[in-house]
Structures are given as structure tokens and as C-alpha cells.
Amino acid sequence: MFIQTESTPNPATLKFLPGMTVLETGTADFPSSDVAGNSPLAKRIFAVEGVTGVFLGTDFVTVTKTESVEWDHVKPAILGAVMEHFQSGDAVLDGEGHSAGHADHDGPDSEIVGQIKELLDTRVRPAVAQDGGDITFHGFDRGVVYLHMQGACAGCPSSTLTLKMGIENLLRHYIPEVVEVRPVAV
């Protein structure tokens, strides 16, 4: 088994490509080891000292580390944990617990929210998945779109620029009711 790695715009995050399907659908975000209980893969990766976050996509695993450790020191152990997991035959996730993404939204703005979600799914999410992350809809209130950033996007130094200059401009261009985009922590 050969696992490739790719850097991401977030220097604290590295994308691991095992060359096989990680999740059939959706994504799974584990911002700490405390919430990794239903993922044998995430638990193995969190066992590596210095790992602070694990994000699972369809064909990649994004790992975030603390600033106090260097990639040269933790990357071999993470590669070993990923390889060990896929060779073990264990499930990536036990039961349900990952998300297809967006929060539900009912109410008078449901048509606008539908347009927002469609633009996120077709224009934004595929691009940020290339960088090892995901951005999902969290809410819409009085012209403000609230988005949840995951994986490499969470804590990325360029995430504010991505939100304001990229996503906000895109949504405002296609949906005049959108006036601002803000990140949320879930």
C-alpha cells in the first residue's frame, strides 16, 4: 500500500491519500480525540503524539497537528497508523455518525437557503475538498450566511480570506439577499 501526502493551505494540516475509498458518502470531522470514539481510524491517528484533529473525506484523511511538533517527526507515525488501519480490515466508522454536510433550514428563507446549498455543493465544496477540508451550511439569518469550516479549513490562516473574498463574493453575486458570510464553531 502506498499512501501519498499533499500539503494544504493550512501549515498545521496535511492531507493523506491512501489510494482507496475512505468514506462512501459524506465526511466525518473529529476536532479532538474526545469525539473520535466511533472511528477506529481516527482513534489510531489520535494515538500519535501531537495530533489535534482528524477529518475524513471520500478518498482522503486530513490530519492537524500542534505547532510544537514538526511534520518530519509525526508524519511517519501517521502514515503507519493509516496503513495499519486499512490493512486490518476494520471499518473506518462504527455505525452512523458522519454527516452529509449541511444543517437543515425551515422557514421563509428556504428557497434562498436551497440556492446557497446548491452553490456550496457545486462550486465551493469540491474546491475545498482538494485542500483537505469541507465547508458546510450552518444557518441563514437576515442576509448573513453562517458556515462551518472543517478539516484543513478549520483554523487555516487563509480561511478568512477564502470566506470573505471567495465564498461571500460568489454567494452575493448569485443571491442578492446574501450580505455577509461568517464562520461558526460547532
UniProtKB/TrEMBL annotation:
InterPro entries: FSCA_dom_sf, Nfu/NifU_N, Nfu/NifU_N_sf, NFU1-like, NIF_FeS_clus_asmbl_NifU_C. It comes from the Bacteria. Residues 3-89 form the Scaffold protein Nfu/NifU N-terminal domain. GO terms for biological process: iron-sulfur cluster assembly. GO terms for molecular function: iron ion binding; iron-sulfur cluster binding. Belongs to the NifU family. This is NifU family protein. The lineage of its organism: Bacteria, Pseudomonadati, Pseudomonadota, Alphaproteobacteria, Rhodobacterales.
